[in-house]
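Most newcomers find our protein records easier to grasp once they have seen one. A record pairs a protein's sequence with a compact description of its fold. An example says more than a description, so a record of this kind follows:
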Amino acid sequence: MVLSFNQASAKLKENVGSIDLLVLDVHEIPLHVNRQFFGWSIEVLKHIRYCVLANVLHSKQGKEPYVDCKILHDAIDVIFSNGKFDDVQLRAYYEVKRKIHHFFKSHEDIARIGSYINFEVDYFLLGAELDWESEDVPEGLDCKYETLLMDLVYGGKDLDEFITEAKKSVINFVKAERFRKSS
């Protein structure tokens, strides 16, 4: 639903603390932003909503917030600035992804909602150099990356080790695919 500023303000006031309302201020989105980046930001925004959900449920049980989702806000900034995360940011990003995934797994009824951010967002934040407007993700990269990610999520792989392997794997896979195509 699209609301005017006044309508959105009124909705926010009546739904304080609600996880069912997301306000997107399109005046802050640069006109040159491509559709791919905008779509990724929506994926990350959905994950922020999941963080809020986890934190609201924890606070209702008298617990401390479950996860700090600031890194997801940073991810949106990095996407729109066409940058990439450094290792410290990647560590925080994957820690949030892992926590949210575990949260959903521990709440099976809620888990049907999902805890997925498109792999392309991860590839971008890891530093894969693709022309996101015209170049497809190399075939086979998703399977390779998913194997690494599942080792992190289910296998208890060390976060720093995962980030190092993921960066190396994704960047090398893209380079190898480009080389193969140019040969």
Residues 34 and 155 are 36 Å apart (CA to CA). The radius of gyration is 18 Å. The chain has a mean pLDDT of 79.
